[in-house]
Amino acid sequence: MPEMNTRARRTLLTGLAVAAGATLLASCASILGPRDVDIPLSSLQAGLERRFPLDHRLLQLFDLRLARPQLRLLPGDRVSLTVEATVAQSFLRNPSPARWPCPGA
After folding, report:
1. Residue 82 neighbours by CB under 8 Å, 6+ apart
2. Following DSSP, what letter does each residue of 71-94 receive, concatenated?
3. Largest CA distance in the chain
4. 62 by DSSP, 3-state: which?
5. Quick one: average pLDDT of 57-78?
6. DSSP state of 59
7. Rounded distance, CA 85 to CA 68, Å?
8. Percent of the chain whose predicted confidence (pLDDT) is above 70
9. Does the structure show a pLDDT above 80 at 91?
10. What phi and psi values does residue 94 have, to the nearest 5 degrees?
11. How many other C-beta atoms can be found within 10 angstroms of the C-beta atom of residue 88?
12. How far is the first Cα of the chain from the last one, in angstroms, to the nearest whole number?
């Protein structure tokens, strides 16, 4: 029986240590408070310009091109994005001639 008490104590002490550690970690997160990150608009704009222009095909009928992204700051810590969008009908283009294998060639 004394072995059981020692094992039970160790289990209880381990559980309490884990609970105390978790409580300390959780309280440390709230001590630092909210985190605010300031990113200059110029670096956001430069990051967007690296990813543009974007070309997409919609429904196999239209070619969409997004270019010239412009960011603006709005009141209330909001950001606005404006892009130039061009839509072209892909079926009106001159398709390249299809090459079919010639039998007997």
Report:
1. 69, 70, 72
2. EEEETTTEEEEEEEEEEEEGGGS-
3. 95
4. strand
5. 86
6. T
7. 9
8. 72
9. no
10. -80, 110
11. 11
12. 94
